[in-house]
Design goal:
single chain; 529 residues; alpha/beta; Rossmann fold; UDP-N-acetylmuramoyl-L-alanine:D-glutamate ligase; 2 domains; elongated
């Protein structure tokens, strides 16, 4: 996964319209575009210098576009020049003669080429051949436009140079030119960056595919925007500092009841392992007691693997499949538990689907466990009209895109294109917390708040990792976190555990059970800062 550098516990993620509104408010507070541009250019130059180790002697080509992004590039070019870099500026479109930043670089004598005067782009090719770094300052967060004419040709030449000389580094300002700041859609000519320095706030499109693959390492640069101007932004990145502040306390005087009781209803004849992974996930994040409610013929098999859990065997309709009449047995046990995790590997057997409906939608009002619902529960609810009107308890739903498509009736392609909107609208309609799994998992609350995971790890794209996640969320929920906080922390810990395993094993061959011992290690690392 491309790395991410940022500071602070709260990192808002903005859309193009959000950023325009913030800039308007900044101007009203005495920070006009000119001041922000100067701040941005300096911050960019500092990041480039730090990333390279030193600016002195570096051959840097700055591609300058027509708008504010080009202005940021001119300011950065000036500072890098002043710090000893050998800077060349390539104007892909003419700047106004009264542009103060253009005037300053000309005063400095920084070599500048105007593309319209560069026959066959010969000067560009010559400069590229001797450059260490290319800075893409063509287009920023404005409306996605098709890259045509000189812009497309210039980016194509840079791509060719990078293919010929892999050591040539590309740095994008705010986002790679041609990448949509809101959707992550990318023009075919969009140039992949080794480093993207995004300004003020990270943009939503930087966490959406295919654009995420073009970002490289992502750095969020402070350009002096007052922090309070982002207060109205309801979307945040999940950061280690944020999770550190949320994690449950572990008092020395605790007993197992202090850390909550989780009843896990999971597993069937063909998905025995799902029950194991979900229970272990809950235990490995610190739940005090975990009980597994499982088809009675499977209990001896799981007891050989899960030695720390207790058991609530359920009657069967067929070997390995829970009977539809088992809901009464489940309800009798629920009064002793804080959380019910239900769904992992239960199957779509007709008797099991009846059991799910009766257990959840006919639950006595005297019972009020918090719910974590996954997998086959979601598939069963998807076939039950207006199910959310009959499910009164607090619940966290953890669908992958296919399950979300069944729950919402939306095409899976639409869900992939607009994950944040889909998750947020579903959470509002259902009045439940929604965890839309996948690369950069989205956590959405019923009140419109949303958080996005920084992790996109292909090693997590394997069977059973979702069961570990559901267990982790249930274990945190049992320890007293709110549904939204439990989902947020669970998603982050699951991703952090995946990153730890990937660092050791690589992302091919990682299996879900590898995450289990990594979960407490991730918690320890976060608590120690």
């Amino acid at each position: 996964m491309p790395s991410l550098r940022l500071s602070g516990a709260v990192v808002k993620i903005v859309t193009t319209n959000d950023m325009k509104g913030i800039e308007r408010c900044a101007a009203e507070q005495g920070l006009p575009t000119e001041v922000l541009m100067e701040n941005a250019g300096l911050a960019i130059a500092q990041q480039v210098k730090g990333w390279l180790g030193s600016a002195a002697g570096r051959q840097i080509l700055v591609l300058v576009g027509p708008g504010n992004n080009g202005g940021d590039g001119l300011v950065a070019a000036r500072h890098l020049h002043d710090w000893g870099a050998r800077v060349n500026i390539y104007l892909c479109s003419q700047r106004r003669e009264d542009d103060p930043n253009y005037h300053i670089v000309k005063e400095r004598g920084i070599p500048t080429t105007i593309a319209s005067e560069d026959k066959h782009l010969a000067d560009l090719d010559s400069t590229l051949s001797s450059s260490d770094v290319v800075i893409d300052a063509l287009f920023g967060t404005g409306k996605l436009r098709s890259l045509e004419g000189i812009f497309r040709e210039v980016l194509t030449r840079v791509r060719g140079s990078k293919e010929a000389v892999p050591g040539l580094k590309v740095i994008a300002l705010d986002l790679p030119s041609g990448l949509d700041a809101d959707s992550g859609a990318a023009d075919p000519s969009c140039l992949a960056a080794d480093l993207t320095i995004t300004l003020g706030y990270p943009k939503l499109g930087l966490f959406s595919f295919p654009g995420r693959d073009l970002v490289g390492e992502l750095v969020v640069a402070d350009i002096g925007i007052p922090a309070n101007l982002g207060d109205g932004i309801a979307t945040e990145l999940i950061t280690e500092a944020l999770v550190q502040a949320m994690l449950p306390q572990r008092p020395r005087s605790a007993h197992k009841g202090t850390f909550g009781r989780v009843l896990v209803c999971a597993g069937s004849l063909h998905y025995i392992g799902a029950a194991y992974l979900a229970c272990e996930g809950a235990m490995r994040v610190g739940a005090g007691l975990v009980t597994l409610a499982v088809a009675q013929s499977l209990q001896p098999i799981l007891a050989a693997k899960l030695t720390e859990v207790t058991y609530a065997p359920l009657p069967e309709a067929a070997p390995g499949f829970i009977s539809s009449e088992a809901s009464q047995v489940l309800h009798e046990r629920l009064a002793d538990y804080d959380v019910l995790l239900m769904g992992c590997g239960l199957s779509q057997h007709p008797s099991v689907m009846g059991f799910i409906r009766d257990s959840l939608l006919e639950m006595p009002s005297s019972l009020s466990p918090a719910l974590v619902l996954d997998a086959d529960v979601l598939n069963t609810l998807a076939q039950t009209p207006q199910w959310w009107q009959r499910l009164g308890q607090d619940a966290i739903l953890t669908p992958h895109p296919g399950e979300m498509a069944r729950l919402t009736g939306l095409p899976i392609e639409e869900i992939g294109r607009d994950r944040l909107r889909v998750a947020r609208e579903a959470a509002a309609l259902w009045q439940k917390t929604v965890v839309l799994k996948g690369a950069h998992t989205v956590v959405a609350s019923p009140d419109g708040e949303a958080k996005i995971s920084p992790v996109a790890n292909p090693g997590l794209a394997s069977a059973g990792t979702g069961d570990v996640l559901s267990g982790a969320i249930a274990g945190l929920l049992a320890q007293g976190l709110s549904p939204f906080a439990a989902a947020t922390c669970g998603v982050y810990l699951h991703g952090a555990a995946g990153e730890m395993v990937s660092a050791e094993l690589g992302d091919a061959g990682m299996v879900a059970s590898d995450l289990l011992l990594a979960l407490p290690r991730a918690i320890k690392k976060i608590k120690e800062g």
